[in-house]
Amino acid sequence: MQRYLLHRLIVLGLSLAVASVAIFMVVELVPGDPASYMLGTGAQPETVAALRQQMGLDQPVALRYAHWIGAALTGDLGQSFTYKTPVAALILDRLQVSLPLALMALMLSVAIALPIGMFAAARNGRAGDTLVMGAAQIGISLPNFWFAMLLVLLFAVRLRWLPAGGFPGWGNPLAALKSLILPAVALALPQAAILARVLRSALVETLGQDYIRTARAKGLSRGQALRLHALRNALIPVVTILGMQFSFLLAGAIIIENVFYLPGLGRLIFQAITQRDLIVVQGAVLVLVAAVILVTFLVDLAYAAIDPRLRLK
């Protein structure tokens, strides 16, 4: 297990290093001068020169990368040109919305997908399986922004149970959680449909294994064999999808955040791109990539917890 953990930590460090170089070089490869791009075509040469000096663009590329990554390791991601605020502070502020939203959507996705996937697998080939998987296919096909608008029309406009948008802050936790319910449901539905189909397929394959037939021969019902033996062995592909979904929910909720006017990280990146604030884009993307790599590392650890054979590698 220690060897496996050490190997995954080395991969984690190398992945972060390669990702940081790639992110830095993408900004470097933006056509034209980044300072001129950020200020626009009508900027004065003196203003462009001052921003170039502030961004360190008058220094060699290798030295700029060393300064940037060294500062990033201390938590300094630079200062936003648009907001005149440290980028790290902006990202932390937006994560207070995006992270709880992603966690709520992920938990809701699991809560929906787990019983549905098990129900369909236990009735493989029968009417219940066909009906549930057909509904899951519809859930995958529905655009989440369209579903989000339907939720707003029903629960905010007609029933007035939940707010239609905005985020009041965590000063009032109940109001903050209520404002995240509809976006979390809108994000969770297609993810739950995907997860349910993956779980159902993994369970059906596992239920055909010899050890499951042996368990059935000893007197276990199909449902008992599924819950006691098949479920754990079918979790590896499910955990993989969960890791990918969390990364998507954290970084890819731009449309939903705009539909509900949520000041999240995805909306920050979108606004930074439209405002040509490359420093914010660079810092936010670095944080997101680091989060994805960290989630992948945790998924690998979950593999080892689920399958003891991996601990011997």
UniProtKB/TrEMBL annotation:
SUPFAM superfamilies in the record: MetI-like (SSF161098)
The entry's keywords: Cell membrane, Membrane, Transmembrane, Transmembrane helix, Transport
Name this polypeptide is given: ABC transporter permease subunit
Record membrane topology: Multi-pass membrane protein
One example GO MF annotation: dipeptide transmembrane transporter activity
Family under the similarity heading: Belongs to the binding-protein-dependent transport system permease family.
CDD domains: TM_PBP2
GO cellular component terms given for this protein: plasma membrane
InterPro entries according to UniProt: BPD_transp_1_N (IPR045621), MetI-like (IPR000515), MetI-like_sf (IPR035906)
Cross-referenced PROSITE patterns: ABC_TM1
Transmembrane residue ranges: 9-30, 101-122, 134-157, 177-199, 234-260, 280-306
Domain ABC transmembrane type-1 per the UniProt entry, residue ranges: 95-299
PANTHER family: DIPEPTIDE TRANSPORT SYSTEM PERMEASE PROTEIN DPPB-RELATED (PTHR43163)
A family per Pfam: BPD_transp_1_N
Organism of derivation: Paracoccus litorisediminis
Subcellular localization, as worded in the UniProt entry: Cell membrane
